[in-house]
Every structure is written in C-alpha cells, then in structure tokens.
Amino acid sequence: MKKMWCWRCKSEMPMLDEEEWTVIDSHWKNAFAMKGVPIERRFDQLKEAYEQITGFAETNHLAIMHHRISLYGEDCHSCGKPLRTPQAAFCAACGWTPATD
C-alpha cells in the first residue's frame, strides 16, 4: 500500500500494490457471483478487505477499483503527482511534458 494522488478522487488515497490487488480482485469477482444478495450488500467484503489492508474505510466500491498503483504512471517531474497512466505523455495536473523538462 502506498498513498498517492488520485486524480478521480482529487486527494491522496491509499493505492494497492499487485499482491494486495489480488485480494481485492477476488472479492470483486465474488460480488458478481453472489445470487440472491441485494446489490448494496454484495461489495461489503470488498470494502472490508480494502479497509483491512489500507486502514481507510472507503464507502464506494467503484472507487476502490481505481486505487491500484499499476494503473498510474511515474510521478511528474514538475508537480510530483502521478501521471494518469503508465503511457501518459504529459501531466494532466500541471501540463508538464518531457519536452519542457
């Protein structure tokens, strides 16, 4: 787990490494396999696992799904926020590009 800027949440959030992600991913898949369970309860185990790993009680299961370190790029050389994707050619937060370095 690593705290990183999340451009969707507009704040620093606990992000999961790949080992931690496997736990969350299995809960995500299990939630869709549950039959007869109200939709608002299906993601309870996923949210509990995220809180256990990170110490942060996220209430939105969809937000958890984009709190994965590997989805983001390297830190911007100008503002320090992570690039939105590993393939990003510029920083969406400040506009930095490698050509301006």
What would a concise description of this structure say?
With 101 residues, this protein is an alpha+beta fold. It is built from four helices and two strands; from the N terminus they run ββαααα. The chain has a two-stranded antiparallel ribbon.
Task: Summarize the topology.
Elements: E1 2-6, E2 11-15, H1 18-33, H2 39-42, H3 44-54, H4 61-64
Antiparallel strand pairs: 1-2
Helix pairs in contact: 1-3
Structure characterization notes:
The protein contains 4 helices and 2 strands; from the N terminus they run ββαααα. Strand 1 and strand 2 (11-15) form a beta hairpin. The chain has one domain (2-100). The protein has helices at residues 18-33, 39-42, 44-54, 61-64; strands at residues 2-6, 11-15. It is α+β, with helices and mostly antiparallel strands and 101 residues long. A two-stranded antiparallel ribbon has the order 1-2. It is elongated and about 55 Å long.
